[in-house]
Amino acid sequence: QVQLVESGGGLVQAGGSLRLSCAASGRVLRINSMGWFRQAPGKQRELVASITSGGSTNYGDSVKGRFTISRDNAKSTVYLQMNSLKPEDTAVYYCAAEMGWGPEYDYWGQGTQVTVSS
To answer: Is the torsion defined by CA of 61, 78, 30, 39 positive or negative?
Structure first.
């Protein structure tokens, strides 16, 4: 089992920045990739960014150049630095862990709200 706890969400004005953190516990050595997803009201959940155990990253088109994902393996924590925030970035952001068992993410955090005001 893996437990994920997100933090760092909040209210910010357009153009501002936030950094989300996701602390993992449990069988963290078996985590393959970690990702950040978001879901806005009335919309499907979408991938924001992901990072593999080797450090390879992938970003959704809407956040490229503005968001940066990173991980600190010693702390079992993944971060999402969000710059130049836009009102359309408003969503609940979820951290997820993929264990390599299949194509889907296997464990999810409870989510943290990010609200960007115009």
So the answer is: negative
pLDDT tens column, 44-62: 999 999 999 899 999 999 9
Task: Name the pLDDT band for 29 (thresholds 50, 70, 90).
Answer: confident
In single-letter form, the type of residue at position 88 comes to: E
- Say how far apart CA 64 and CA 2 lie, in whole Å: 28
- Cα–Cα dist 116/5, whole Å: 22
Could you give the CA distance from residue 71 to residue 85 in angstroms, rounded to a whole number? 21
Q: How distant is the alpha carbon of residue 95 from its chain centre?
A: 5
